[in-house]
UniProtKB/TrEMBL annotation:
Keywords: Oxidoreductase. GO terms for molecular function: oxidoreductase activity, acting on paired donors, with incorporation or reduction of molecular oxygen. CDD domains: Tetrahydromethanopterin_reductase. Residues 18-236 form the Luciferase-like domain. PANTHER family: 5,10-METHYLENETETRAHYDROMETHANOPTERIN REDUCTASE, PTHR43244. This is LLM class flavin-dependent oxidoreductase. It comes from the Bacteria.
Length: 298
């Protein structure tokens, strides 16, 4: 596996849960993150969860309160979001925030819950095909063409008028796990969004190979596909070490630095699994992030 050059940019961010009874704490967290040197905020998208805000509404409300953080749904639930309208929402917020929005996109899980809200049940090959068509629709809606057409089985455009265009290309990052989804990521996406809960380091090794092979087959530079890793765990006190992503700040520094160099991870989006969230996020922002940045450039 190739090591990253020392000049590679590494982004650090937070993963937020859009709990409707937690808005005040969410605003405090992003206000802190905006001044603490973090780069990204991702918000999960599960519209069928009755205790959750709508992700895009919350993302917009929080993004306009900040001045430097970049924002993305982690990941948008495609079966419940029309891709042409989603493209317009992303472009609109990108303009409003001065180019601080990315699009994380997924094929959708929890199929029964999606169907219960009136969404389609796309599984297996159909899910991958629908996602690929949606990406074509979104990119067409971000173009400067006067009229666009995309002919697909699941998603189409028939003479739609794109606009407004985003202030810069937001990119599409896929939450991909299976072989077909990983191949689609390498073939057509701008980034990959795995999560440590289902993608341990050994999975990253094999998945990176699939992405790279698909990118090369498509004539793309594999390094153009950014890897943004959702990391959930606990930053413990010194002397308390329970293993991967469950140890003191010094262990986190070593692990994230190794993931960057060995697995070519370009960014880390953190959410604590235990402890007081604000304390954990301070440890991440003040003890882990600066040390990893220094190690990467050393």
């Amino acid at each position: 596996m190739r090591a990253r050059p020392a000049s590679s940019r590494v982004d650090f961010g937070l993963f937020l849960i859009p709990e409707a009874d937690n808005y005040h704490e969410l605003t405090e967290l992003v206000t802190y993150a905006d001044t603490a040197g973090l780069d990204l905020v991702g918000i999960q998208d599960h519209p069928y969860q009755r205790r959750f805000f709508d992700t895009w509404t919350l993302l917009t409300a929080l993004a306009v309160r900040t001045s430097r953080l970049r924002w993305f749904p982690d990941v948008a639930n495609l079966p419940l979001r029309n891709p042409a309208v989603l493209a317009k929402a992303v472009a609109s917020l990108d303009i409003i925030t001065g180019g601080r929005v990315h699009l994380g996109l997924g094929a959708g899980a929890f199929h029964d819950a999606i169907v219960a809200m009136g969404g389609p049940r796309h599984e297996g090959r159909d899910a991958v095909l629908a996602l690929g068509e949606a990406m074509a629709v979104i990119r067409a809606m971000w173009s400067d063409e006067r009229s666009v057409r995309v002919l697909g089985r699941f998603h189409t455009l028939d003479g739609a008028h794109p606009g407004p265009a985003p202030s810069r290309d937001p990119g599409i990052w896929l939450g991909a796990k299976g072989p077909r989804m990983l191949a689609l990521t390498g073939y057509a996406a701008d980034g990959w969004l795995p999560s440590s809960g289902w993608a341990p380091p050994e999975f990253l090794t094999e998945a990176n190979k699939r992405i790279d092979e698909a990118a090369a087959t498509a004539g793309r530079d594999p390094s153009a596909v950014r890897r943004i890793y959702n990391v959930s765990g606990a930053i413990t006190d010194e002397g308390v070490d329970r293993g991967f992503l469950e140890g003191p700040a010094s262990r986190w520094v070593d692990e994230l630095t190794a993931l960057h160099h060995d697995q070519r991870v370009d960014g880390f989006v953190f959410w604590p699994m235990e402890g007081e969230p604000f304390d954990q996020i301070r440890r991440y922002s003040e003890q882990v992030v600066p040390a990893v940045r220094a190690a990467v450039t050393a």
